[in-house]
Every structure is written in C-alpha cells, then in structure tokens.
Amino acid sequence: MEVSIIFKIGAVGILVSVLSQILKHSGREEQAFLVSLSGLLIVLFWIVPYIYQLFENIQRLFVL
C-alpha cells in the first residue's frame, strides 16, 4: 500500500469536515450531508482496489 493514499484520505477528510461545518452553520444541512456522502464515496473508490487485492492474496495463500 502506498503512503500517499493515506495522505489523500486525510486531505479529503479535512476538506469534507471543513465544508460540512461551513454548510451546517449557514443552514444548509442537506448540502452538508451530500458533501459528507461524496467524500465517503471518493475514499471508498480509492480503497476498494486495495481490499480486492487483499482478498485475492488471502485466497491464494490458503489455496496453495
């Protein structure tokens, strides 16, 4: 796993939390929820290939 992916996830988390707080304080809770949801989806799209690779490695390990 690359170290850069951890920094990307951290950056998205910080950006989403700041935007969410700004939107909540301005009374736009629906948009804050959508920003949080989109941040989660972006991170999931980055993580899914690594999870798939992990399951493939575990499968190869036990099949031998």
Give the key terms.
64 residues, 2 helices, mainly alpha
Short description:
The protein contains two helices and no strands. The model has no long low-confidence stretch (mean pLDDT 93). With 64 residues, it is mainly alpha-helical.
Query: Could you give the distance between the termini?
Result: 23 Å
The helix tally amounts to 2
- Estimated structural class: mainly alpha
| Rg over C-alpha atoms, rounded to the nearest angstrom | 17 Å
In what range is the share of β-strand residues?
under 5%
Residue windows where pLDDT falls under 50 for at least 5 positions = none
Topology overview:
Layout: H1 3-25, H2 29-63
Helix pairs in contact: 1-2
Note down, in words, how this protein is organized.
The chain is mostly helical and 64 residues long. The chain is built from two helices and no strands. It has helices at residues 3-25, 29-63. The longest helix is centred in the C-terminal third of the chain and has 35 residues, at 29-63. The two termini are 23 Å apart.
